[in-house]
């Protein structure tokens, strides 16, 4: 798969104004490492989000430079951090995803480490609190593009509905599973209706 950034990194710090927070209940940051022009702006923006009692989730995606810097200041301002296991290991330089999840959760956020076909594990305050294997949707995997982002969307939906952590993980896994059944990041969602409680309708 070839990725072309196009205009993604054309968004500058001046575009991320505090007024955007007034029309949002929750702010999700995706592709942190690809959007280089926004990186210096995030700490102040997230401090303002916290002042306004907005919640924040973050999925960095892979760092093309493999430097993995800038997160130390950001993670204490984040409510939910959603790395996959390879990203978590790279960020922390720990030997395992479990050790990485524990370390990251000590920085403040609820950490959900996505482990592909093995499911996901949630960590709080240095401890693994919930582990979940994915549930089958009888979908033959076609393309994994966007599966992690779809997991994020499902998990955050459950989080904003104040669902139990287990239900948030389940809904995230269902959304990720549906995306695997078609090419691209969203086509699979049109083929499955996924209820808020994580059941395929």
Task: Explain how this protein is built.
The protein has 201 residues and is an alpha/beta fold. 32% of the residues lie in helices and 14% in strands. The chain has seven helices and six strands, in the order E-H-E-H-E-H-H-E-E-E-H-H-H. Strands 1-2-3-4-5-6 form a six-stranded mixed β-sheet, sandwiched between helices. Helix 3 (85-92) crosses helix 4 and helix 5 packs antiparallel against helix 6.
What structural keywords apply?
single chain
Give the gist of this structure:
The protein has 7 helices and 6 strands. By secondary structure, the chain is of the alpha/beta class. It has a 6-stranded mixed β-sheet, with helices on both faces.
> What composes the largest sheet?
6 strands, mixed
Instruction: Work out the helix count.
Output: 7
The 3D shape can be described as globular
**Element-by-element helix/strand order:** EHEHEHHEEEHHH
Q: What is the distance, rounded to the nearest whole angstrom, between the alpha carbons of the first and last residues?
A: 31 Å
């Amino acid at each position: 798969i070839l990725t072309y950034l196009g205009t993604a990194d054309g968004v500058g710090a001046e575009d991320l104004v505090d007024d955007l927070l007034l029309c949002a209940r929750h702010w999700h940051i995706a592709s942190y490492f690809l959007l280089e022009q926004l990186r210096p702006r995030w700490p102040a923006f997230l401090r303002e989000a916290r002042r306004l009692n907005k919640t924040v989730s973050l999925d960095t995606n892979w760092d093309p430079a493999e430097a993995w810097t800038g997160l130390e200041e950001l993670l204490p301002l984040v409510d939910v951090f959603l790395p996959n296991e390879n990203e978590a290991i790279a960020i922390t330089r720990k030997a395992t995803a479990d050790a990485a999840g524990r370390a990251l959760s000590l920085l403040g956020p609820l950490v959900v480490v996505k482990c592909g076909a093995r499911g996901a594990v949630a960590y709080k305050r240095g401890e693994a609190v919930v582990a979940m294997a994915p549930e089958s949707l009888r979908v033959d995997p076609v393309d994994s593009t966007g599966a992690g982002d779809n997991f994020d969307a499902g998990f955050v939906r459950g989080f904003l509905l104040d669902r139990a952590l287990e239900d948030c993980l389940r809904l995230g896994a269902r959304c990720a599973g549906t995306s695997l059944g078609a090419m691209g990041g969203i086509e699979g969602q049109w083929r499955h209706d996924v209820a808020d409680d994580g059941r395929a309708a």
